[in-house]
Amino acid sequence: MAKEGAIDRLIRHVAGAYDAILLTGDLVQYRMARIEGIEAIYMEPRKEARFRIENYFDPETMSVHLRAGLPPRRKRGRPGEFALEYEGDVLTEEDVREIARDIVERARRDPKSFIEIDEKGATVVQLREYRIAITMPPFSDAPEITAVRPVVKLSLEDYNLDERLLRRLRERAEGILVSGAPGAGKSTFVQAVAEYYASLNRIVKTMEKPRDLVLSNEITQYTALEGSMARTGDILLLVRPDYTVFDEMRTTDDFRVFADMRLAGVGMIGVVHASRAVDAIQRFVGRVELGMIPQIVDTVIHIEKGRVSTVLTLSYAVKVPSGMHVEDLARPVIEVRDFFTDQLLYELYTFGEQIVVVPVKGEGVSGVLKYAARGIEEEVRRLTGIPALKVEVLSENKVALYVPEDEIPHVIGQGGKRISALEKELGISVDVRPLGEVAVVPGEEFTPEVSMTKNTVKMRLPPHLQRAKVAIYADSEFLFACNVGSGGVIKVRKSTATGKMLMKALKRGARITVRTVD
Rg of the Cα trace of the chain? Predict the structure, then answer.
């Protein structure tokens, strides 16, 4: 029970039982002893010029990576514009362990530092402005230390934002998502937004794990209470801040906590890993009710190379989706617009039993039906019970439905009743064809159905893709290429290098996509 403070409590108990004076270099232990009426003296740690890890940093270094068997590596530059450099002698296992011990001991003694996570094989430390992840075998295959620190601290004025965006942040935006790829500068921008709201005399809090944002003292930074952000949210609802920054939302629970707090009236600023602004919105799909998304998120700000590249706004309407022409197809639609031009870019709505995110811009065949093809496939599977099928868009008003040849009579139904009912429900003409005629189109993208066994990750794709060569992506980041197995299933062993990459992406909540290649 050491992590829960059992040893510290035992020490205080002995001091109290013997009416002794407790001398400690642990500031928390000193304060707890005083609260319990035990006479205590805090031993101020001796001043040390620099933490050992600081020796690897210079003013332009963003992060340092130390691993046994390699020379020290560091990223130098600015968010989105950096280079990885090797410098110094190869580190031994003992070198890395010794630096790790120094980091942990400093964090325990320093009142401005803390240990955020301490598990077998993994420790996360906030050492002043440095966020440090320490991993050891068996969790990692070798001792490793990764230390990150903000290179710059900017204000909103430094971003030269359009006055219209500043006005929206000041007057209207209350559900904000800040998105971007890792290292794009999301945290630096969020820090500036938090300080901006604090300067407007708003009460600002944060939810972080680890707590690595560099903020002024008037902004209180909270972590996961007893490992749960939901518990932290419960406390914050009692505190009633005007704005809360939720840094690094990954899990379904994170998105639900964000939604609950926003719907309770708290202004929310969430940070999300995404390669495109619209991908940040898609992270809410399936996690909250579709019609609630515009009430939860009203503004998406996408960061690239440390600058604001895209701003999207969301609104709710009941209408016929763009590209459809049958009035009976009117439904609730979430409109996603470019903030600066007010141009409609995407629409989100239900098609069949699936929620689709449809680009409105496009030439030739309507982008609506291209993306709705997945919804048509799901609807046909539900109505016919046939798992192996494929939908191809032929025009705005017609699609080809490919099913196994022996299933064609079942799909058409007696006297064409079943296919007529399907066409009426979808509002388009359906041409039924044998599944064997489907061609694999290079560059076509699919979202696989992911499942796991004890040792394997399985990704299920349409059956016509079996033996096709494909590339696997996580949030648009290439992971690996492979051939699809029989029945349209890709099997990846967790113990392999590709399996470890895939598991890491799944754990951080990345969106997995599969793209066909030549």
Answer: 27
User: Taking the domain 367-437, which CATH number applies?
Assistant: 3.30.300.20
Dihedral class, residue 364 (left if φ above 0, else alpha if ψ from -120 to 50, else beta):
left
pLDDT at 363: 39
Neighbours of 470 (CB within 10 A): 24
Peptide bond into 138 cis (omega under 30): yes
Cβ contacts of 454 within 8 Å, gap of 6 or more: none
Can you give the pLDDT at residue 375?
63
Report the side by side order of strands in the sheet with 81-86.
81-86, 73-78, 61-67, 144-148, 130-135, 122-127, 114-119
Domain ranges of the chain: 2-42, 52-148, 156-319, 367-437, 445-516
Domain 445-516 classification at class level: mainly beta
The confidence score (pLDDT) of residue 44 equals 79
212-217 contacts at long range (C-beta below 8 A, 24 or more positions apart): 212/126, 212/131, 212/148, 212/187, 212/247, 213/187, 213/245, 213/247, 214/129, 214/150, 214/153, 215/191
> Which amino acid type is present at position 510?
A
pTM of the model: 0.63
pLDDT of residue 323: 66
Cα–Cα distance between 290 and 349 in angstroms, integer?
A: 8
Tokens representing 100? 């790790």
Query: What residue type is assigned to position 180 of the chain?
Result: G
How many other CB atoms sit within 10 Å of the CB of residue 57?
A: 19
CA angle 200, 205, 211 (to 5 degrees): 130
List strand residue ranges (DSSP E) for 167-298, in order: 175-180, 204-207, 220-222, 243-246, 267-273
> Which residues of the chain have a pLDDT value below 50?
363-365
What lies within 8 Å, CB to CB, of 432 at 6+ separation is 400, 401, 403, 408, 411, 412, 419
CATH fold of 156-319: Rossmann fold (3.40.50)
Tens digits of residue pLDDT in 283-316: 898 888 988 999 999 999 999 988 999 999 999 9
CATH architecture of structural domain 52-148: 2-Layer Sandwich (3.30)
Other CB atoms within 10 Å distance of the CB of residue 189: 24
Which residue shows structure tokens 């996690």? 287
